[in-house]
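Project standup — Tuesday

K.O.: blocked on the structure for the chain from last sprint. Re-posting the sequence here as requested.
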Amino acid sequence: MARIAWHEKYSFGTPNEGNIWAFSRWLKNPELAVEQAYGDWAVSRYGRKAGRRVLDILLRTNDLVQKILFVRGFKSIESGHVSGLKHLLVVRKLHPLVTRDVISRYKPGLRPTAEELVDPVPATRAWVRQEKDEALQIAERCLWEVERLRDDLEPARYRELHNGFARAALAARVWKPLAELSVAYGIWERTRSANDAEVLRCLADQIDAIADEAAASPFQTPLTPAPKLHEMAADLRRILRPEVQWAYWYYSDFASAPVLADLEGDGEQEILAVNRGKSLHVLDSRGRRRWLFQTEGLSWAYTSMTSAPLVADLDADGRPEVLFGASDGKLYALGQQGELRWWVQTDGPVSSAPVLLHGRELQVVFGSRDGRLRAVDRWGRVRWVRDLREPIEQSPLICPSSGGGAGTILAWTSAGRISAVDTSGSVLWERRLGGPLAGAVFLNGKPGPEVVFAARAGALLSLSPSGRELWRRDLPAAVTAAPAVWDSPKGRLILVGTASGQLLAVSSNGKDVKNLFRNTVALTAPPVLADVNGDGAAELVCGDASGGVSVLGWDGKVLWRFPGGSDDSPVVATPLVEDLDHDG
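H.V.: unblocked you, prediction finished:
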């Protein structure tokens, strides 16, 4: 016998008791037939008149659970809950892959099914749909037979069985479109045909309908709450919008800015991105994964910041290396095919993107959450370490030297302390702002170079490279994204996104503040300047807390917008604008 899920609120409350009861009887008397042990339990719980018939019903629960939550015995979708569309589509591949590569060593007959679930065809979708229909038929048949036994059961026992199978029937109806979607998406991902896209739109409608049914049910929605189902349907429709050329999914978030680089030297750009502290993904221009480097990091180790990759030819051999930090406390250096060149161990997660320091020798500078700023040479040997005593989450900033030297390294901690460090690791000056910083930008102009810091509490502070305060400007809302510099038709401006959805344009001397744009939710990604429409003028690209992206003209008017989804999938990384398909 089996339960619908691990939690009592989704289950009958009885099958585990029956299994344990029967097993304990069998341990005491191995000669006892298993059927007799289960039968004795059923009679003791449901009475002599109804017990044996209830047992016949409950013995179908194992098949019922297998058909609801599994696909031909494979845990192809998460049986505890599904947190969103990304979770569903990633686990669709993840679990059969694990089964294919591990379990099929011991049961080779499972391998063809695993292969089909990873790369489904229309016939796969047909048998998945049939399996879920069979699950619903079992649940409804059991519910009907429980009704026939109502007069022979105590009221409490009847409610227990009735409610359990009613929940099972609801779970079967919920999981039918989800299981079908997990397969249909894999088909569409390969074909991109209009017919397969229409199948997904129909499934989105079915998910909305079952969400409404679940919300109106007297029982708690099994496994996935109704609002989350509506979000999944909306996210699916977003992907099917004609302007979306491709989407790449992984089971944890991408919180670092993507980077473009020609790793192969073939004239084609690869896309590099680090998921939340754990692995580096390299994709081609069509969103197909070229290779993946997995670290020992934990995907939940970071709250917001993730190290963006750095691509540079460190050893001057004509082939680029890729550097990135991970939540296992290491800075990794990889070759162009993902082969490990070297790594540096720290005592805390590395969420600071590495930067290059050009001096007498090339150095890589990065911070980590152990509070230390480090410089390593091109072969990964540590040159110096400076303890700043508080976690470093963001990338250091290199201020060029007026004399053409290597310059000054500016690093800031999660508590808001700014430190200026020279190329040997000695601290030149420190300044505490009293709260966390969203980021900083370097300005080089009249009357001289300066660095503008954005405090999350809602202020801008301009400092000279020597640490002298040049100006300070309070802002009307908390800052939720790193600042950017825009040489607009009306002069140089500092752009800042806020928690209230404002895109503020601050003059380079801090005197004037203009609300350039007002969004409905917080702006969570640094704005990017790019000629998106090819008119020769730069547009502003802004990402927000709902996952939406807005493109603005120089006057702040919205030229177009890609709608957001849910609040649990914000755009936190700097958007990247590039002509990937070379169509101009």
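K.O.: great, moving the ticket to review. The first strand starts at residue 259 and ends at 261. The longest helix spans residues 155-191.
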